[in-house]
Structures are given as C-alpha cells and as structure tokens.
C-alpha cells in the first residue's frame, strides 16, 4: 500500500488524504450543535394594553393619563430542544439581525421545553412583584394602601423589571416630578430590577435595540454594564441612556423632558 501510494502524483495523493477530513467536515456541517439563534423579538408598551388587557392597573391611589410609551423589549430564540447545524450558524454569524448564543446562555435552567417555559414564566412573575416593590419604595408609597396588578404573562424572564417599575412610577400621579416620564416620546429599554431599585444586566441588548427602533423608540435605557454591547449594532437615531438604578432612569428621562442632556453610552 505504501509503495503504491508513493507512486501517485502529489495532487492525487493530497486528494486521497483529504477525503476523510472532507467527510468529517460535511458531517460537522449537518450535525446539531449546542447553540441558539436569536433575533429581535416583540416589544410591549407597559403603559398601554396587550391583547386587550391593560398591562399596569393601579388602585388605592390617584393615577394620571400618559401620552408616551414605555416599551419593554425581548429577543426570540430557537427553542431549547432545537438544534442549529454548523452551516446555519455560519450563515447567521454574518447577519446583523441575528445572534449566535450558547444555548445555556439563553436557557440557563436546562430541562425540557415545558420545564424551561415554566421557569421563565415564574421568573417573569417574580420580576413583576419586585418591580412593584422597587417602584413603590422609590415613591415612598405604602404597599398596603396602593395595589398594583401587572398583566403580561405570556413573556418569560426577568428582563422587563426596569420598564415595569418605570411604568408604575409614570402612572402614579403626585410623584413630585411634574408630569409624565416619557414627555410624549416612545422610550424603550431593558434590565432587571432589585427591590431596592438596582438595575441588572440581561443580555441580548444589541438585538433589543433593533426591536426598539423598529417599534418607534427614540430613547433606549440600557444597563450601564452593557453599553458596549448595545453600541455594536445601534440603529441610527436611537439614543442610548445608561442606567444603574431606577432613580437613574427617572432622572435621565426628567432631564430629557427639560431639554437637558442625559447620560450617554
């Protein structure tokens, strides 16, 4: 065998040697890999209604009418049990409206599709409760007197916390700020919220800025730690405002309403 191979011309010999590698690459290109493909998802105005249901309902305190919008943003990703091939990942890698992410970064809880969906809905429910606590704490309102109901059950995860808190603050009249937060603008954003009003990072912000611009936003509130990520595919005409807390976000929006500069990434 060796002597026969040695008599082959060099191009033929290389082709023979490359055949197993080519076959391996072909298999790899079609084999499922542990990555998810994400894209900009829907947004929802927390000051308005979704699917005919008011997102934020408040009783026990005066509320005000608002003209602007506060839009929470999402990403859509391939399901936890779906698999992308190498060929698909390579194609998506070069698209600005798609992102290739490790599956565990999108679905950190693991488990079956049903278990992950249940986990994400539980995280959203916790986020809504925490957002209410943060907003009422910021406004120094007694939670036993002011009742807040949040209805956005079909979106999973905790990343709408900041926007929920801002929506509650904006709807409650008499917060001492002199009018609605948005100033009639469409403001979008993302970020988790803690009971004391701290804003946390969420991931997928570059895709969320695209969703925000698509749905009419001119201002995007982003966790300060994710400014660099948000700038990577920033749509033209969308102002990035970094925040680390609920009070940061409120103060920045108040500044914009007064015609003053707000912090920028």
Give descriptors for this structure.
Ribosomal Protein S5, domain 2, alpha/beta, six-stranded mixed β-sheet, serine protease, 265 residues, disordered N terminus, two-stranded antiparallel sheet, Lon_proteolytic, 14 strands, EC 3.4.21.53, Ribsml_uS5_D2-typ_fold_subgr
Describe the structure.
- The chain contains nine helices and 14 strands.
- With 265 residues, the chain is of the alpha/beta class.
- The protein has two domains: 1-30, no CATH class; 40-79 and 110-257, Ribosomal Protein S5, domain 2 (2-Layer Sandwich), CATH 3.30.230.
- The strands form five sheets. A six-stranded mixed beta sheet has the order 8-2-6-10-13-14. It has a two-stranded antiparallel sheet with strand order 1-7.
- Strand 11 (192-193) and strand 12 (199-200) form a beta hairpin.
- Helix 5 (113-139) runs parallel beside helix 6.
- It is an enzyme of class 3 (hydrolase).
